Amino acid sequence: MNANIESAPRFSLATRRRLASTAVIVGFFVVWEVVCLAFHVKEIVLPRPTQIIAALITYAPAIWPHAVQTLSTTLAGFGLGILAGTFLGALIGSSRLAYDAGYPLLIGFSSIPKVALVPIFVLWFGAGTVPAILTAMIMSMFPIVVNVAAGLATTEPELEDVMRAWRASKLDILMNVGLPRTMPYFFASLKVSVTLAFVGVVIAETVASNRGIGNLMMIASSSFDVPLVFAGLLILAVMGVSLYAMFSLIESRAIGWAKRKDDIALG
Q1: If we measure between CA atoms, which residue out of 106, 110, 93 comes closest to residue 147?
Q2: Looking at domain 47-260, does it have CATH number 1.10.3720.10?
Q3: CA 101, 105, 107: angle at the middle one, nearest 5?
């Protein structure tokens, strides 16, 4: 008996955490379904999860091109945001003059509601994909700039002194000390920025586009098809979580040395 008990499989702490999180997510949708049924909530107010899934299945052929459009636009804008954000963050973090001059401008620009920029982009480039890409780029760029600049600014002076003792140039110090030191900040900003990129694309699609999940949701809301509106929200959530998980996986492979202690213990 004791031997059988000892040989019984034991779930690791990581597995138990995953099971617990899955149970919470499933429980959320079950409670949502039960509450709507118990209180006779109309679908025009709050559709049940089963009604949302039914809308997804029914309108799948029509939803698919919009989902592909939104995903491709988001990735394009996010890629440009990574390039621009990394460049500006490296410039601001490695130069005191650039920090004093550029940081206030970035903060002021970030304070502007991005929905107010979409009509300007439409005037410049016309309605379509370009305004959505630019909006995604701008929304995803600022967290990357801030985190890359913070990572460079907090690089240990001792490491820089050692490099200078070996007569390393500023570029050598940046490439061999500053940027590797910034990688945890960089990947943290990517996981935040990718969700903001989706927000930017959907904002632009609702204002100045005839394709995409944002446009689909606008059409569905105008015809009071609330389950289809929530289906669009569900698709956006799934795509956002998927990209977040992808960057988390890349982070764990690229900078495993920067994992938290409890994550190392779970591994």
Answers
A1: 93
A2: yes
A3: 120
How far apart CA 146 and CA 166 sit, in angstroms, is 30
Q: What is the pLDDT of residues 55-98, one digit of tens each?
A: 999 999 999 999 999 999 999 999 999 999 999 988 887 777 77
pLDDT value, residue 135 = 93
The domain limits of the chain are: 14-46, 47-260
What's the pLDDT score for residue 133?
Answer: 94
Amino acid identity at 194: V
List Cα–Cα distances, 128 to 5, 76, 114, 134, 149, in angstroms. 63, 14, 17, 11, 33
Per-residue burial over 18-53, b = 16 or more CB atoms within 10 Å of its CB, e = otherwise:
eeeeeeeeeeeeeebeeebeeeeeebeeebbbebbb
User: What are the tokens at 40?
Assistant: 């006779």
pLDDT in tens, 156-210: 666 666 666 766 666 666 666 777 778 888 888 998 899 999 999 999 998 888 8
CA atoms within 13 A on the CB side of 257: 4
- Residue 57: exposed, middle, or buried by beta-carbon count in 10 A (0-12, 13-18, 19+)? exposed
For the chain, how are helix, strand and coil distributed in percent, rounded to 5? 85, 0, 15
* pTM for the whole structure: 0.82
Give the pLDDT score at 131.
Answer: 92
> CB-hemisphere CA count at 13 Å for 42?
4
Residue of 56, 53, 58, 57 whose CA lies nearest to 29:
53
User: At 89, is the secondary structure helix, strand, or coil?
Assistant: helix
Phi, psi of 45 (to 5 degrees): -95, -55
**Rounded distance between C-alpha atoms, residue 234 and residue 230, angstroms:** 6
